[in-house]
Amino acid sequence: MPRKPQFTILLLVSIFWTMPFSLHAQKKQQQSYYIKLDQSVDLASDSKLITAKQSCENWGVAAGLETMLQQQNVPLNQNFWVMRMNGGELCIADMPGVEALMQVVNKEFVLDDGRHVRLELHFVPGPPVNVDAVIAGLKLQQVTLLLWRGHPYYLTGLTYDERIGRDGTRFFEVKELRLANTFPKLPGVTFEKGRDNPDEIQGILSVSVLPK
Fold first, then answer.
1. What span, in angstroms and rounded, lies between the C-alpha atoms of 32 and 16?
2. What average pLDDT does the chain have?
3. pTM for the whole thing?
């Protein structure tokens, strides 16, 4: 079912991926925290995640754009985006650069039904820092792309520990990211803290449909 355009989520609390919790505790003058371990949030199992028509990185990104926009009632398919990115339905081994992608996406488009929409691509570099925003997005069933080792994946779920202070402050520590492949017929993968290198995460991509 088409979803309404996503809007900016207020960021309430941040925690750095590699920042030890003890640093936060010192800043809060040894405030005690209630810890909720192994919290999980996921996209619905029936979420429609479109896979690439060709197993090439540019097609993977284009499939992600198609999925994120379809969720917001903007039917621009991956063929459309590959043509705009590459000038033809080419298979490119590397993902397009973020700046080049923004130049392609951040424009006004006229849809087949006559609607005018303006799109805006958002990129948050590196591993998730504003974990609360990522959790909120998943709870709202918003699809995003996580770029890991030069490949786009759908971010489908998250496992985290939550620490709640007496004053109501909350800190989140990511333990696992669950990812679905944008390439067809390939299984999902997980990123696990302590096993995988967060420096290999290029960032998270999302796209908004701006009100006209």
1. 20
2. 88
3. 0.84
The count of C-alpha atoms lying within 13 angstroms of the C-alpha of 197, restricted to the half-sphere facing its C-beta, is: 4
Residue 69 token pair: 């926009």
Q: Which residue has 């040894």 as its token pair?
A: 30
Residues 35/173, Cβ–Cβ less than 8 Å: no
Amino acid at residue number 20: P
Could you tell me which CATH number the domain at 32-210 has? 3.90.70.10
For residue 48, CA distances in Å to 64, 106, 207 come to: 11, 24, 16
Q: What is the pLDDT of residue 30?
A: 60
- Which spans in 51-97 are helix H? 57-70, 78-86
- Greater model confidence, 110 or 212: 110
The yes-or-no verdict on residue 26 having pLDDT over 70 is: no
Q: Would you give the distance in Å from CA 205 to the centre of its chain?
A: 5
Percent of the chain with pLDDT over 70: 85
Place of tokens 């299984």: 187
Per residue, the 3-state secondary structure of 28-39, as one string, reads CCCCCEEEEEEE
Q: Which residues contact 160 (CB under 8 A, 6 or more apart)?
A: 39, 40, 131, 135, 172, 173, 174, 175
